[in-house]
Structure formats: C-alpha cells, structure tokens
Amino acid sequence: MLLGRTANGLYWMNRYIERAENMARLVDAGLRMALTRTQNASEEWNSVLLSAGSDAAFTQKYSDYTAANVADYLLRDTSNPSSTMSSIETARNNARMVRTALTRETWESINEAWMSLKRMLAKPIDERDLPSVL
User: Fold this and answer.
1) In 10 A of CB 51, how many CB atoms?
2) For the chain, which residues make up each domain, given as ranges?
3) Residues 35, 73: Cα–Cα separation, whole Å
4) Which residues 6+ apart lie within 8 Å of 133 measured at CB?
C-alpha cells in the first residue's frame, strides 16, 4: 500500500508540474497572437480561456478579456485550480508527501520554483512585464 501511495504522489506531482507548464505556454501563445492584432485583442484572449476550459469561471470574476485579466486568472489566481500558481503549489504538496522518494535536487528544484513563482506572482502582472514573467 505504501508503494502505491508513493507512486500516486509522484504521478500527481508530475501531472501538476506539466499542467503549470501548459498553462504558462497557453498564456504565452495568447500574448504572441494578441501582439499580431492591429485592433482589439480580446478575441485572442477569449480563445485562450476557451482552450484552457476556464471561460465560464473567468467571466464570473472579470468583465473584459484583457492580457492583464487573463494572465492574472490563468497564472496567479489561487481560486482557479488550474492556474500556474495553484498547480505548482499542489505539485509541491505532493512532492512533500513523497519527499523520501525524491532526490534532494528534485525537492529543492520544486520548492525553489514554488518560492520564485510566489514572489513573482505576489502582485498583479503588468501587461508589459508579462513576457519576462513567462
């Protein structure tokens, strides 16, 4: 039973890390698409939310599709279980559960990623700073 719990924790740790990476890539793709638009880029940001499966939850919190709002929701919003911050925090919690099965370097990498992300995403991201955050 112990081996099963460890395998489960490792699986979900990796799954949440992958989810965080995919969400950041989706925001990056949205930013690149929005930069190519000559007019309002709200359609591009709406498509990012639709791809993330977060459009309905987003519209309950925000009224307009801007880079700042979408980045805030998909990267930093801890009430969004799929946000990058939520995913890294959950991955860290899973890593803590199976810490004895991890190398010291793996644990330190996950913990450092969580601390860096927490520091970087402590305040709302300005649209101009989004490329450096991603």
Assistant:
1) 13
2) 2-133
3) 19
4) 71, 75, 120, 121, 125
Determine if residue 53 is left, alpha or beta; phi over 0 gives left, psi from -120 to 50 gives alpha, anything else beta.
left
Predicted structure pTM score: 0.90
Using CA atoms, how far apart are residues 92 and 79, in angstroms rounded to an integer? Answer: 17
Tell me the average confidence (pLDDT) per consecutive run of 10 residues in the chain, 134 residues long: 86 98 96 84 92 95 93 96 97 96 97 96 89 86
* Measured distance CA(31)–CA(13) in Å, rounded: 27
Scanning 1-134, the segments in alpha helix (DSSP H) are 2-35, 42-52, 55-61, 67-71, 84-97, 104-120, 130-133
Residue 6 CA to residue 101 CA, distance in Å, equals 7
